[in-house]
Each structure stands twice: as C-alpha cells, then as structure tokens.
Specification:
Length: 308
C-alpha cells in the first residue's frame, strides 16, 4: 500500500477513455485507463485496491484539491498484461446543489459538478494526470483463487473491481480458474448497467460464471440486490452460500451491506459472513435498526466489503 503518496504523486498518461454504458442513461460513466510505466506505481497494484487521483486547482478554502480514490477496474497485471496500465470506472458526479450546512443559503439549487470525477472523465488520450496509491489491503482476491468460489455483489460503480477480478479469474495469465463465480450487479435502470455487454459475453463463454443484472427502478421488476438474492435463494444461492468455499464480496454504495446481512440472518446463513456484536443478537435480527447495524454488525472473515 501507499507506494506513491498523494503528497508526492507520479505522472500518468491517459491511454483510453470510453463510455461504459449502453443506450441512453441519465448517468455518465467512463472506463479510463492510465499508463504509469516508469513510475513506482507500475506493477505494484493488485485488483481490489484503489488508486488516487489528484485533480488540479484549489478548493473553496484556497487549498489544493485533495486526493480522490478510484477502484482499480483492471486485473493485477494491468490492462496491458505488464502492470503498466491501470484503469477505473468513473461516474460523473452531476446534480442539483443541495445545501450541506445550516449557514448556507437554504434555497440554493444551482448545478453541482463534482471536481475529480468530471476532471477524470474530461481527460483526453495523451493527457497527463497525477496519481498515487495503491490503497486498500483487505478487498483482494485470495492468494490461491482456485480454493474459493465467489459471490460478487455491486451497486453502481461498485462493479469496477469485479471487472478486474472476473477478467483476472477467467482470462488471467494462469489460465481460466474453474471456481464458481456469481456476479449480482445492481443499477437503477437497465441503461445504467456498467460493462453489461462484456459480462454477457463472458457469461456466454464460461459455464462457471453467471451474470445477474438487477434493476431497482424498472417498470417491469423493481428489485435491490439483496432482495434478488433472497428471491433466488432456493434456486441458486442457498447451497452456494452454505458451501465453505464461498466468499462474498460487496462493493458500491454505503449502506448496501445492511440489506444483505438481514437476508443472511433471516435464512440462517450468517456463519463466517458476519459478526454480530452486543447489544445486538443474531436471534433478534427482526428488530435490528439500520443505525445499530452499522456499529454492531460487521463483515466476517468470508465477507469482503468496499463501500463509499
Ligand atoms: C475506496 C473508494 C473507491 C472508490 N471508487 C470509485 C470508483 O471506482 N468510481 C467512482 O466513480 N467513484 C469512486 N469513489 C468515489 C470517488 O472517490 C469520489 O468521491 C467521487 O468521484 C466524487 O468525487 P468528485 O471530486 O467528483 O466530487 P466532489 O467535488 O468531491 O463532490 C462530492 C461531495 O460533494 C457533496 N455533494 C454531493 N452531491 C451534492 C449535491 N447535490 N449538493 C451539494 N453537495 C453535494 C458530498 O459531500 C460529496 O462527498 C471511490 C471512493 C472510495 C473511498
């Protein structure tokens, strides 16, 4: 971790920038690849980690903008197979301004444009960018990936690490890993499913990989990832979750864990995936409040979580 510190970043060069949504969406998400060859970052990252981007300019206090973290979307050997090109999946933060403090003008509603996500998405091929990292030491693939099976769950850009991990498992330098891989990818609408075509193709080509796109705001079926897993428990997920080989990974919006922990508790599947601390008890799961869960229900050794 932290081979390159944000205070002393290295210069990378953008080598690819492509939209990664199909069809018309209200969101803008790009796959951005950055060449870091010749820097200390080259070859020093692992899929599941994040890297830092330092946007130019100053914040509203006149201080240089702080580093923002982005999950690696490439395998550990990079997009180029040599560990020289890292990538991420970046969503432009664009919204109507909502006052954040009491002393702000409360009816302010101008356009709010996130600093770093838009900077990164605006960069063109050949542009330089200051990068740091890598960051993160737990949300990683195991040392011997073939000894486990994987339930990968994402919301939004939380798909980024799985884009790297699944390519590493299925197409890595070691050949195809035969582990069972289930990807449950949540998005508001089908047009917001990120890398959808690539995952469809990988699922068609590999019997051990199943792709489950789940949309939460469709008119046809509205569902969140946890509810989808619960609905399909007896058809596909129960045996899988009971198998001691299985690891659960969750990545995306803060708050996504509580829904899954509730499902696991409700169906007697919590073993190894979650630790329930006092004053909460597993038996009392029906009355858990989400705020209490944040403090007292933690990921167990078979559950890896990266939320932001
Ligand atoms: C470990 C980790 C991995 C991450 N991976 C990814 C990734 O793979 N892809 C990705 O896109 N992002 C990722 N992020 C998030 C990323 O770091 C940035 O937070 C995100 O891109 C927004 O940064 P920004 O500079 O564009 O927005 P900022 O300029 O920092 O604005 C966002 C901040 O402004 C405030 N805000 C938000 N909306 C409004 C509003 N409507 N009105 C007023 N204030 C508002 C909030 O406080 C918010 O924190 C990750 C974060 C972490 C911690």
């Amino acid at each position: 971790m932290h081979v390159v510190r944000p205070k002393d970043p290295v210069v990378g060069r953008v080598v690819a920038s492509q939209p990664c949504l199909n069809g018309r969406s209200a969101s803008f998400v790009r796959h951005v690849a950055i060449d870091v060859s010749g820097t200390d970052l080259a070859g020093s990252f692992r899929v599941g980690q994040a890297f830092g981007v330092i946007p130019p300019g100053e914040d509203h206090r006149g201080k240089p903008h702080s580093v923002r973290l982005y999950s690696l979307a490439c395998p550990s050997h990079g997009e180029d197979g040599e560990g020289n090109v890292l990538s991420t999946t970046v969503k432009r933060v664009i919204d109507e301004y909502t006052p954040q403090e009491h002393d702000e003008e409360q009816d302010a509603h101008h356009l709010f444009v996130g600093v770093c996500s838009n900077y990164l998405c605006d960069l063109k091929i050949g542009d330089e960018v200051l990068v740091s990292g890598p960051a993160g030491k737990r949300f990683l693939l195991p040392a011997d990936p073939s000894r486990h099976d994987y339930l990968f769950i994402s919301t939004g850009t939380g798909i980024a690490p799985y884009y790297g991990m699944i390519r590493e498992l299925l197409q890595g330098p070691e050949g195809t890993c035969s582990s069972r891989i289930e990807l449950v990818a949540g998005a508001p609408y089908t047009t917001d499913l990120i890398y959808d075509d690539v995952f469809q193709e990988l699922a068609a080509a590999h019997d051990n990989f199943t792709y489950h796109p789940v949309v939460s705001r469709s008119d046809i079926r509205r569902e969140y990832v946890d509810r989808y897993i619960e609905r399909n428990l007896d058809d596909s997920f129960r045996d899988f979750l009971e198998d001691p080989r299985t690891l659960i990974y969750m990545c995306g919006l803060e708050g996504m864990e509580s829904g899954l922990y509730r499902v696991l508790a409700r169906h007697g599947l919590s073993d190894g995936y979650m630790d329930v601390r006092e004053p909460l008890t597993l038996e009392g799961h029906e009355s858990w409040e989400t705020a209490d869960m944040k403090r007292n229900v933690k990921a167990g050794p078979r559950c890896l979580v990266e939320v932001y």
